Amino acid sequence: MPNYIITLKLKADKYQEDILNKRLEVSRKIYNACLGELFRRFNNLKQSKSHRNALKMNKGEERNKKFNELNKEYGLTEYSLHSYVKPMQKHFKKSVDSQAAQKIATRCFNAFQKLISRQASKVNFKRFGEMNSIEGKSNKTGIRYVNNHLVWNKLIIPVIVKKNDMYAHVALNDKVKYCRIVRKLIRGKYKYYIQLVLEGIPPKKYNTETGEVRHVRGKGSIGIDIGIQTIAISSKKEVKLLELAPEVNDIEKEKRILQRKLERQRRANNPNKYNEDGTIKQGNKEKWIVSKNYTKTKNQLAELQRKIAVIRKQSHDKLANYILTLGDNVKVEQMNYKGLQARAKETTINKNTGRFNKKKRFGKSLANKAPAMFLTTLDNKLKFDDKELKKIDTYSFKASQYNHFTGEYVKKKLSERWNQFECGMVQRDLYSAYLIMNSEDNLKEVNRELCFNLWENFKELHDLEIERIRNSESKLISSMGV
């Protein structure tokens, strides 16, 4: 059964906010205690002879089975951590209930699991004030939503549900699976919310003026070629080449200004921490001096980061809703964003200038535009209609190299943004999206017959889109090649 989340604001008094802050701080201490215990158990495991022998085994089922047995033996399992957290919860029983404590342990274990499976390079302890959410396991005990109130360990806080918020009123008719309390720093002040995880699919949104359903789902195939900052969309109805989250760009300038200001203040406050060439002194253990103006700038930057995250999410939601009005059979060629985010390993020299090339790659653009987050958003919306985002086999498909007229694969440089055909020039990303749209059911090859049948319609829509982009007053991204 699918789930969705609705977030509602809490109408908390000052003393209730203090209680919530105290309980979040207790939760942080429990989390750090669990993480410290996991590190201790993991170190004991690594020092054992059984672990060294398991590492020498050939990769396969037997080796994995051995590691699972060792994890159980040394207490590196979720349920063993639940047992560890039990006496701690009894000590803090006035603040944190047993289900919330188990959820904290699970959260800690999931983070540590990424370290064990090498999906993460390290796991950090949470500093003071960094624990901003806590959740329960059901709506029967512990953290509960009852009659428009948050109820938790004798704490009862009203939940704000606006009269004109029809979406919230309809959503609250669904069953509440469990609740989550979230603290957010907004404009320098903490605001408190309850997130209800509801069973079912989100209610449909209606146009308040006409009463019609918004974002009516379409039928048919859609091909998506997503890059770092752009997305190419191909369907029978429309062909589009768009920038991901363009609203973020203007705020990004303000962010850079604040980051530079913060760096200047940090250096002015701590001249002894830096060398003459501007680098940080190694081995200097003096305490960093933090001024009031530095803290003020840091809070301004945090607020700006929050705004960017909210605007980016809204932009992704709008784009995902638009795509789903074009069709329901969505196919995409996914990129390895983690690889693109990492710095280049090899040191190269620029042939023209003779200088070393920067090892930075696309980390900043990926952080601002979040293409992987957009694909997750799109996939989640498809799941509400019992569909899923189909990912083509990149290695066998090779959308950027294929020519459906000749049936051949031709490698192109990244700088080549156009394909030359007898009928005219076609933008590379849009053509890739068109090929992806016309892929076979196995998602490994192109259906050439379908490409020929739909070509005239695609070319007409393609030319209209290129004309729209060229007449646009907004600044274009260079990778579009328009």
Features:
single chain, 482 residues, seven-stranded antiparallel β-sheet, globular
Fold and architecture overview:
The protein is an alpha+beta fold. It folds into 2 domains: 197 residues, no CATH class; 260 residues, no CATH class. The protein is 44% helix and 17% strand. It is built from 15 helices and 16 strands. Strands 2-6-7-1-5-4-3 form a 7-stranded antiparallel β-sheet, with helices on both faces. Strand 13 and strand 14 form a beta hairpin. Helix 2 packs antiparallel against helix 3.
Number of helices: 15
Adjacency order of strands in the biggest sheet? 2-6-7-1-5-4-3
Categorize the overall geometry: globular
C-alpha end-to-end distance: 45 Å
Give the beta-strand count.
Answer: 16
Structural class of the secondary elements?
Answer: alpha+beta
Mean pLDDT, to the nearest integer, reads 89
Low-confidence stretches: none
Assess the beta-strand content as a share of residues: 15-25%
**Biggest sheet character:** 7 strands, antiparallel
Rg (CA only): 27 Å
Question: What percent of residues adopt helix (DSSP H or I)?
Answer: 40-55%
Total count of domains: 2
Query: What oligomeric state best describes the polypeptide chains here?
Result: single chain
Secondary-structure topology with pairs:
Elements lengths: L2 E8 L3 H33 L2 H8 L4 H13 L4 H14 L6 H19 L16 E3 L8 E3 L2 E4 L2 E6 L5 H6 L4 E11 L2 E11 L21 E6 L3 E5 L4 E5 L4 H22 L22 H35 L2 E5 L3 H5 L21 H7 L1 H13 L6 E2 L2 H4 L4 E2 L4 E2 L8 E4 L2 E4 H10 L10 H6 L1 H17 L11
Parallel strand pairs: 8-11, 11-12
Antiparallel strand pairs: 1-5, 1-7, 2-6, 3-4, 4-5, 6-7, 8-9, 9-10, 13-14, 15-16
